[in-house]
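Two quick folds needed for the group meeting slides. Do the first one here.
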Amino acid sequence: MLRAASRRRPLAPFSPRSTPSRARLMFAARLALVLAASCAFVVARAEEPTFEARTTTRPTSARAGEDLRVAARVGFSDAFSSSRGARLARWSDAFDASYATVELHYRVMWDDETRVVAMTRAPSPSPSSASASAPSFEGAIPASNLPTRGGMVRYWIVARGLDGLYARKPSRQGDHYGAVVDAEAIGGETTLPTLFVFASDVAGSERDDPVPCSVAYHEPGRVVRFYDGGVTIRRRGSGRRDKANMFGKGGSKDWPKRKFKLDFRGKAFRARWDENVPDVETKVEEINLHSSFDEPGGTTSYLRETLAAAAFKRFGVKAPEARHVVVRRNGEFFGLYVMVEQPDDSFLARAGLDPSGSMFKAVHWKYSNLRPLVQHSWVPCEFAPEWESGWGPCPEVYRYAAVADPDETRAVGELKAFINDLDAVNRGGDTSRLWDVVDVNAVVKEMAVQTALLHQDRCAKNYFVHRNPSDGKWRRIPWDMEDAFATDYRDRDGRCDANGREPCRGDSGTYCVMSCEWWNSPYFCDENHPQDIFTESDGRSTWNHLVNAVLKDGGARDAYARELQRALTTLHLSGFLEDTARATAEKIKNDAARDAKKWGRGDFAASVDALVRQTRDRAATLREYL
């Protein structure tokens, strides 16, 4: 038996003396995989073997003066379904690496030239290695060909075998791996995360239509993550796209230091929102980069959005997270930014809300205040009564934002029903259904924090509404808090009531938000305290119909008063706002100085002092009311 066995033909799929065909290679690979599966006794099904390459060394950061080394394994592999339903991947030993050509392709920044380096067979691992049957190949991008400090090199693996066998890694054509030169060293210049953005169309990235880009993200003490393929960048922010804003007021979309939105292919970006919880990450599809360029009072503290997010969190309000990052564009320092979480299904899941519930963003400066629907059949726009057909397309009023639920038609019906219920309260005085359709406890908490922070731009837009499908109740989710901690003057420090002057002005150009009861009232956003004072374009209709309905119900109004008193104590009188502002300012001061120098934003320390002074003044005003 032993002699007969020794004369038996070996099970190797081909002899090195002959050239195997692709069919024989595929048959041998399939046989080897099936044999391995049957020996394991856990595999229920084997699929068609695939010729592929897998990277084993895939650097995301390069060091200047050193070659960038990449390694990959190449061969046949397959996925198996185990008896327990798990997906397993195995390499087949039915592959002779001598018939493979493996190349490392790379491109430096936006060079048109694609350079190629032949990858060579690496020494085989020990027989005991689990991946011993997968031949390894190594290659290096020469240090002399790397870009300068902060630059990007993108690379990919191409493997070819007999009879047209082809594999690419990343597998999607046009996607790349990437590395940033001296990324860790650059990240070490700050205590904040560094976001590297690479866009060949710089002008396009500052307009409305998304343009492709690549992104690298580095947090201190963590590996660099590189994102390429399906990543886009565009500007974001308010303002008319086709003509100048009213009164010549510039929209945030046109700030010299733009606000940006980064959109990834699926939930690819890993965000760690709370730096004090190091192991909790959220995979997200979008992130927002807010520039803090034009803050109330003519100063730039860079603190308003992160301080507001911290206040909501401390008070238990479901709200997007925000943290500071340093943004570098195409290798150069671009600015100190606030990375803000996008309210979407990832946010809802993180916040403990149901992602399958209907959610809408209020986007119009006037019409998205949950006002009644238009009842006249001749009006083409249900939310815009004066928008007759001759005016062109209806304006966007509510933007559907529930990614997890594709049934927008049903969701719009739910929103319309909600608006009708609010109308019954506000016009008819019937509050009987208010507690059935509104999560009153959640809404009054959010209202209390908004009032405590004196967020002026919140009545008609800058919020989302979300419906919990289990009980049918709606709540508001705050958004775009860059105008929190409002001041009397947009472009300078000071108060309208200084030296005994009249604190409330009737002209359209001055909003004395700190001094005048119209805006500083705890009842701001009700029908007696609309956001705007001008009469043209019906500006005085910009009060919020949800806020007004809550304040019409005695029980809800009392609940709001209690929460506002608690917000005054918890946020202001406890010292939380001032202490958090000072601590954050200390952390970001070096990057704030760099940003202020680049963008001409003035004295950072004075801006922080002005913000702290605003919180003290606001606390004093609230104590008078309460």
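Then this one, please, same format:
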Amino acid sequence: MNCFQVTLIIVEQLVTWAVGIVSWIEQQCSNVTQQLQQWQQQWQNQCTQETSKVCNSLPWPFSALCGWVTTLVCTLVSVLVLVVIAVVQVACAAVTILATVLLLLILSILVPLLFLLCIIFPCSAPMESSMPPDNGWLVTLGEAIPPRLSQDNTVAVLPDGELACQSVIAAIASATQTINLLQLEFDAPFIATFVGATPQTLLTQAISAATTNGVTVRILLNDDLFADSVPKLQAAFAGNNMIEIQGLTIRPFGIMHAKGMFVDSSTAFIDGLPFAQGYWDTQLHLVTDSRRGTGAGGDIPPLGDVGNGVGNKPAHTVSLRLTGPAAADVDSTFVSLWNSVSANQAPPVVVPMGQGTQSIQIVRSAPRLSAVGLSSGEKGVLEAYLRAINNAQMFIYMEVQYFTSPVIGAALTRALMANPGLQLILLLNENPDLPTYKFWQNSLLSQLAVFPKTQVAAFALWRTKSLTDGEKAEIMECYMEAKVSVVDDVWATVGSGNLDGASLGHEFEFLPSPLSCMSAAKGWRNVELNAVFYDGIAGQPATGEVRTLREVLWREHLGLEEIPEVPPPGGWLKLWSGIAAANISSLNATQAMGGTPRSPSRILPYAPALDTLGQLTQLGVNVGMFDVAPAVPQ
């Protein structure tokens, strides 16, 4: 990766934040001025009305004198408020100018410094190869026998937080021996299940109840400068000796991003959502839903909407429940990580017998860790993707939180050029929450724009809320938290691994030289955990599970009761593009998208603009008819 390219994108993000700060100051000033003006007008009206009532009740000449005095007082107060408004406006203008000058000064120093670092440290961060080791489907990691590949598994797809949490709570309630839990984030007040809008079960309550039955609980959490789950969860479980909580710290860059749970040597979950209320959601993804609490947050309001948190908006996730030998492969990763940080070692993994038919391979990403098997790091998620892309013949479908990896971009470009009949369908975040990611995503999509729209297209999720009494309908982006891909209905993956540097190879997106080169050399990346389905390929039995996974997701996104058995003329991309175009027309005609009340459609084409108003405008939506929520709604 060219140092100047990385630096240019970092500069774009910094400039966007600077503009956001100035705009925020102007908005705050405007809000204060409007409030003062409203108060002045209300005071003038109320003062005149109330004093008139009092004065008119007095006999003449006292009524006339009263009227004259009160009118003078009302006018003087109003004039005083107008003077305050003028002073506020002048002060705001001065603060805005000062902030603009200060930010320009900072940028004038920082930007040349970043480019100077590229000259002083003229290294280009080498990206991983976009070629798979060979033409096979199975991840080998250079070994003769593919690691963590098993047969006879049973799989349940759990789209979105409501279904996932219901299944997790049921598994915890049935536990008799052990619960091993691996999480990026676990908020102690996290409500897992509801009855209607009424909270039913806190996850901490369910876990505590399990320990009364003699269940041993181990919880391993990401622990870094920005994470606070460990101390808060330890406080929540204080005094319960059946529960141990540990944190895994990855330095200098990278996080423990994997999310999973293992129960009683038989059942495992690959969770698609952090246990934080803002990521809990139903399949309807309502614009307003009290069950999401105050949202996922993560934003700093003055920085604006680009690369600045999630806010409070609907969130789409996908989780898996696995039973069979693959569950033990999930647990083996937990045990390896746990035993590297805890003095209380977890016992060896017991491999359960399988009663199903699905072949699953558990693949991982990891930096160099002291955990068993990870001393050299691992890039299994990347290898899985490269092999699948290389073997794709008909279509590749990807719904991912982050899409920034040039390695994946190169692999897709090569596959699409080699096979003009291959289609690529991308379902992405319009507004990724991390700094620079929107710019990297736009850059990657611009490279793929050389292919016709009948071969490659990107989409995003949106939801609308109809209002009454003449108010405008509200429209809001639905946040994409899922990490799922499907190839030709014979291969799929679900897990925590994104299509970005931190998940696949090494962090680079916001690391200037020489940090980006150090990241490449040392393999600074996250811990990730994915399940890969093989369905009638690589000598594995055909089950139809991959197609079932795709259809479950597409019914939700497209607003269709049933997905066609075979692709229509023009392929699956034609179906997606047609529904997205129809949704734009429907928005302009009825202020709602298509589908049915039980299964509303929610896809629109992806737009490269940096804010929701600009994105919808680029798509041809009449934004004047809508209350358009910002990219980071509060």
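Slide caption for protein two: The two ends are 36 Å apart (CA to CA).
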